[in-house]
Amino acid sequence: MAQAEAKWAQMESAVKAAQSAGDNAWMLISAALVLMMTGPGLALFYGGLVRKKNVLGTMMQSFVLMSLVTVLWAVIGYSLAFGEGSPFLGGLRYLFLAGVGSAPNPDYAGTIPQQTFMVYQLMFAIITPALICGAFAERMKFSAMLLFMALWSLLVYFPMAHMVWGKGGYLNAFLGGRVACLDFAGGTVVHVTSGVSALVCALYLGKRRGYPSESMKPHNLVLSFIGACLLWVGWFGFNAGSALSSGALATSAFVATHFGAASATLGWIVAEWIKTGKPSVLGAISGCVAGLVAITPASGFVKPLPALVIGFGAGIVCYYMVTAVKRRFAYDDSLDAFGVHGAGGTLGALLTGVFATNAVNDALKDPAGRPLPLGLVDGHPAQVVNQLIGAAIAWGLALAGTLLILKICDWLVGVRVDPEHEIQGLDLSLHGEEAYNLEA
Amino acid sequence: MKKIEAIIQPFKLEDVKEALKGIGIDGMTVSEVRGHGRQKGHKEVYRGQEYHVDLLPKVKLEMVVPDSRAPEVVKTVCAAARTGKIGDGKLFVYEVAEAIRIRNDDRGEAAL
């Protein structure tokens, strides 16, 4: 009898170990995929869109964030985002990653080491501020950018991540929040915050010298193309990885992500084809990114066909944002960080409230253990209101936080490069090098 | 001596080189240039931002030949570079005061 019990216990622990190994393998790969989205993905995507005198400066912004945010995350960021604290900001229990080791944190992911969860979430904290760089491309001081990004992480990203994903966060649907906002992989946390902050940056810094009369054509769309393809692939880590396990939910999110990107690409180029007569490559890759953005909050909650709808809508809405709306209000969101991430993220957050269903994700249960209805399609229209509240908080925090941080940076170091440096280009004036030394 | 400067369509360069080789001319300098005469440019659109591109890529050929050969060279280049459409380019002929081969100081037509 005792022997049988021992055998049973042994088998149970073997099953646990096997599940942990499977989940951990996928989560480590996902973490690497999300890092790949920033460098080289976003660096190439943005780098190709600027003029050739600014390509290194633009790529450097993404790359240096891979370093800067990592250090911040280790010291305090992870704790402020995921430590238990107030509904709006985490506490200091994980300061310097204290206690973050091989044991799982069952609040977040019970089958993988907390260290895996920590490093996976770090990659999100890296790419989010990097997205903002598209708005102030070709004209921000490097010193101001570093200061801005450090403060922005502390004042906007960590609080927002805590509100939506942290235990006890104000908007956390699963871990004791007041308003149950559904954000699977960062529609509000990543894309609304970065996109809206991007708009504030574009307005605060003003237009690039010569915009829009001088030619500011993308200097190398081949780089942007490669970058967009890396983003598409990396996004599987971003969204499917957000299942925090390697089971059916990860598959569902993977499929939704892919479908969203595909139909958004078609949406954008169809709109463009009708409007200008030609479907462009830049349009196709922009549409794909817009779809990936919009499907992000919904990816772990929606079926494949709604994913197609969300993507197609994002392709058309974001096309309209970067063409008609940008022209109408005449702001220089240089690489369309607001038009794609702000608009696409908001649209995705709201549509999540429409299409989320417990047929895909039954993590939310009533006291009797039955899955609760999620979105409008489950007969729960109030979810759309919750999504609206979540998006509004992200908008408000991004607007106020970014404006305050820009003022501080402007006062301390000045945010905009000197006119002669801007004309010379950031590569030479800020970094002392050029990207294309073809005579060398 | 005459300097012949021809601005032609880039895709006609090989034809022109072949034709010149056929009449025994193989010294020339070629540069990639941009410009336009009567040819209209084209429109490019990047995320709704329109650019009118009116300076188009062309190739400039320069060669210096003895006076006696100049008419034949001009005829050959024009014939080889012609498509009959706007944008074929232009050809200019100049007088050359002196030519010097840097290697050995040959002067005049001997330097060509």
Helix and strand layout, with pairings?
The complex is a heterodimer of chains A (440) and B (112).
Chain A: H1 2-49, H2 55-82, H3 114-132, H4 142-165, H5 187-205, H6 221-239, H7 248-276, H8 281-295, H9 304-329, H10 337-355, H11 382-412, H12 419-424, H13 426-431
Chain B: E1 2-8, H1 13-22, E2 29-35, E3 42-46, E4 49-53, E5 56-65, H2 70-81, E6 89-95
Antiparallel strand pairs in B: 1-5, 1-6, 2-5, 3-4
Helix pairs in contact in B: 1-2
Could you provide a short overview of the structure?
The complex is a heterodimer of chains A (440) and B (112). By secondary structure, chain A is an all-alpha fold.
Give a description of the structure.
Helix content of chain A is 66%, strand content 0%. With 440 residues, chain A is an all-alpha fold. In chain A, helix 2 (55-82) packs parallel to helix 4 (142-165) and helix 8 (281-295) crosses helix 10. The longest helix of chain A is centred in the first third of the chain and has 48 residues, at 2-49. The radius of gyration of chain A is 22 Å and the shape is globular. The mean pLDDT of chain A is 96. The model of chain B has no long low-confidence stretch (mean pLDDT 93). In chain B, a hairpin with a 2-residue loop joins strand 3 and strand 4. Helices cover 20% and strands 37% of the residues of chain B. In chain B, strands 2-5-1-6 form a four-stranded antiparallel sheet, covered by helices on one side. Chain B has a two-stranded antiparallel ribbon with strand order 3-4. Chain B has 112 residues and is α+β, with helices and mostly antiparallel strands. Chain B has helices at 13-22, 70-81; strands spanning 2-8, 29-35, 42-46, 49-53, 56-65, 89-95. The termini of chain B are close together. The interface between A and B is medium-sized, with 17 and 7 residues.
